Amino acid sequence: MNRLLDRMQRFSVPKVKLLSEYWNEQDVILIAYGDNIRQTDAKPLATLYEFSLLHLKDCINSIHVLPYFPFSSDDGFAVIDYKTVDPQLGDWRDIERLAQDFSLMTDLVINHVSRENLWFIDYLSHKKPACDYFIEMPGNTDVSSVVRPRSTPVLVPAHTHQGVRHVWATFGEDQIDVNFANPDVLFEFIDILLLYIEKGSRFIRLDAVAFLWKKLDTRCINLRETHEVVKLLRDIVDLIAPGTVLITETNVPNGENLSYFGNSDEAHMVYQFTLPPLLLHAMYHGNSHYLTRWAKDMPRPQKNCTYLNFIASHDGIGLRPAEGILPEQEVTALVDAMHEYGGYVSTRTGLDGRPAPYEINIALFDALKGTSLGLDQWQIQRFICAHTIMISLQGIPAIYINSLIATANDYHGVEQSGKTRSINRHKWEYNELMDLLNNPHSPNAIIFHELKRLLGIRRRQAAFHPDSAQETLSANPALFSFWRTSTDHRQRVLVVSNITPQRQTMTLPNHPRPEGSGLWRDLIERTAINKNTTELILYPYQTAWLEALD
Q1: Which of 53, 21, 11 lies closest to 199 in space, CA to CA?
Q2: pLDDT for 315 beyond 70
Q3: Is residue 487 part of a domain?
Q4: Is CB count within 10 Å lower at the N or C end of the chain?
Q5: Residues that constitute the known binding site
Q6: Hey, which bits of 277-389 come out as E strands?
Q7: Mean pLDDT of 171-187
Q8: Domain-embedded: residue 392
Q9: What are phi and psi of 420, to 5 degrees?
């Protein structure tokens, strides 16, 4: 506690860019591991900085560097030392340099630590204070009511100086949960949070926060005490570092996920975890029914809150967020299709004791190489269409680096790691990547340059401000369409996407400015549509951004 008070007294945020607003249409986030791109003569963080500065500065202003600390497993999410940069990636100077030219997102891996973390080593030898940082229970404790994302045991053995003990491990035996019922644990993580802000982090991602609090005979997920911790962290960042954005990462059903907004007093931003499985389902079937119904039901975010939109990340495509939205038979069909496209499916143990599909592990580029009609020639167009929809939705878009460069399934990575998530965690050699991106005929280059172009257009439209209103339309299920209206009502953009491999026609709605010219301008194609035109023709997987002109 005394150490925390000392840090708070010394706290300063010289590297955080304090903004007049939390976010705007300029905000686009790149998701990347510190070593996604490698060079033999440079540290990976320096290479990521170089690549981003040279090739992405005109279309992306923020970078989520996935855990860049020493770790023992799970590609960074089993943290050994929260306050040190992994020397194989670089050092704090590399992180601070990234934060000078880009808004930085940092993971606060708040639910668990590595077995090799000094706290856990002190627990094993019964040293204060860390010997009280973990949740110890008899190995035969009934934990059948606990909701988990894995099929491994909840309680795992630990060989301490006092004999074998069993400790809580939500995610596996190398990721040991900490005990937030001990206020010293809370103080430790507040201290870490302040360090990350001091080092320049604008966005703080609370990893796996839904599992934070444990209470026997409950589901041990989304408990009231967990929400109280998030509220406290929100109060701290709003008070000490205004403009810092707190993000909850809760891969849970839609309603539970949205609960982390609280009453505009918890997360500033929540991940749109329901979007990836619903959009993948819509593209696979060429039918937007479930996607449209979900989008129409989504509440407008509260003040100073918004969504983080994504369709691919370092993890797989979660299926729990589709619960209650996609019927079980639709989920099963989607899982079977992704198996056919070379993907894997991880399972968890349900409350009934049976395995249930939890996550599809596949590179998004391969996930979109066909439809329910079979493989076709539209993979590139379908992939671009999916991203165009994502970056059009209300909120801030986040693009995974391996999607931005159209990376295919990495079976070699799976073989090396023995982990199915590695299929979508490919590491690129810098020169190999640049050869592909400089080849105008490679799918990688085609997608990379088109997504950059679209992001550049998007960032100039007030209608795509995260706070701008969204109104979803019910139309032909072969289309997905919605309005975006700027906060000052000066710009209205109709987003229309053809999610099928066939040409589609849409009857244009009444022009929202009948007293004006009645013209439409397609921001993507840079063409005007005559006011007498009543129908819009969309080619396979084409998206139109139709701006209503005065």
Answers
A1: 11
A2: yes
A3: yes
A4: C
A5: 74, 112, 205-207, 314-315, 421
A6: 306-309, 317-318, 344-349, 355-361, 370-371, 374-375
A7: 97
A8: no
A9: -70, -25
